[in-house]
Write a structure and sequence with these properties.
343 residues, 2-enoyl-CoA Hydratase, Chain A, domain 1, seven-stranded antiparallel beta sheet, 10 helices, elongated
Length: 343
């Protein structure tokens, strides 16, 4: 299956799918509806869950009734993507780009601002803390720079704490609702990686033609042989490679957030804490339709470096039911590891 590397690096707009109020229903044109169903039947991850001749017959019978057309298309997208896909009008795509720009600006603001990074709790001074929240790339020519800047900021957070006294780290993904996984994987690379120079496989998209591997190098992240984000000489390498690491997850951890969880799964000296994730650990591409609208198309299942992953919720290694319990359990486990216990 052909994968468009450019769109796999943009945000997922699933909440917008055919959701306009009844008085202002937005729909693809008749030609675009046919194209949309053809694309779903041919490429959607869960296409076998839909009776496509029956779906087309229902769409034909709904002609002239916008509400019924909307419901048929929404069902076709929802069932073939397990709720992760979407149709988006051209106008809404533009509006969403502006909204994402505002959100990303807020997430770089001072602690306490809406969408800003979660302040680190009081921890043993030997434990480092990195909050990796959702980050959605605004489509367009500036997308590459957006990903580089965000990855560099996460790496800077690690570098500022990595003073030689850290014996373990906590990566908080509980508030990561998704977006683009690539700056996330590159941003946490100093902690994700176990070697100084090797190309490390940290996960994959499982597709009909075989897995498309996620590669982490000292300075970039790649999908197969294609570089997605590259920091070059400015990339940071942790002082203690492979240090013990606790990953915090919860029901808000979704999509790209779940990809980041999977990238850590299978890493030596790593344990996850919290509650099961949202359960949309599948990958989307954005495909343009003939009328200028777009289909967010779910095409593959995310897997960890050992080929494990089913597109569903990710259950942490240790389940905890409150923020306090999650942080306490993570810190206790880290401090019990030899790297910390001997300090």
């Amino acid at each position: 299956m052909h994968v468009d590397l450019r769109v796999m690096a943009v945000a997922l707009f699933c909440a917008m799918a055919l959701a306009a109020p009844a008085a202002a229903i937005e729909l693809p044109t008749a030609q675009a509806r046919i194209e949309l169903l053809d694309m779903l039947e041919r490429e959607a991850l869960y296409r076998d869950r839909v009776d496509w001749p029956e779906m087309r017959a229902r769409l034909s019978a709904a002609q002239g009734n916008p509400e019924k057309i909307r419901d048929v298309l929404k069902e076709a997208i929802g069932r073939s993507s397990a709720g992760h896909g979407a149709w988006i009008s051209a106008e809404r795509m533009q509006a969403e780009g502006k909204r994402l720009g505002r959100i990303n600006a807020a997430r770089t603001a001072a602690p306490g601002a809406v969408g800003a990074p979660v302040p680190a709790p009081r921890l043993d001074p030997r434990i480092g803390w990195v909050d990796v929240g959702g980050f959605s790339v605004v489509p367009g020519p500036a997308a590459q720079q957006q990903m580089q800047d965000r990855a560099a900021r996460w790496q800077a957070t690690i570098r500022e704490q990595d003073n030689g006294s850290r014996c373990g780290w906590i990566v908080d993904l509980r508030g990561n609702t998704g977006g683009s996984m690539w700056p996330m994987l590159l941003g946490v690379a100093p902690l994700l990686r176990n070697t100084a120079v090797a190309d490390e496989i940290v996960g994959a998209f499982a597709e009909a033609d075989g897995p498309m591997l996620w590669h982490s190098t000292p300075s970039d992240v790649r999908l197969g042989a294609d570089v997605i984000v590259d920091l070059g000489q400015s990339a940071y390498q942790a002082k203690q490679l492979g240090a013990p690491l606790a990953v915090l997850v919860g029901p808000l951890t979704a999509s790209a957030g779940e990809a980041t969880v999977l990238a850590f799964r299978g890493r030596p000296q790593t344990r996850s804490f919290g509650e099961p994730t949202a359960g949309v650990s599948t990958a989307n591409v954005v495909r343009p339709l003939v009328d200028g609208s777009s289909l967010v198309l779910t095409t593959s299942v995310m897997q960890d470096r050992n080929g494990r992953g089913d597109g569903l919720k990710i259950t942490p290694d240790q389940r905890t039911r409150s923020d306090t319990a999650t942080i306490s359990a993570a810190q206790a486990w880290l401090l019990a590891q030899p790297a910390c216990a001997t300090r």
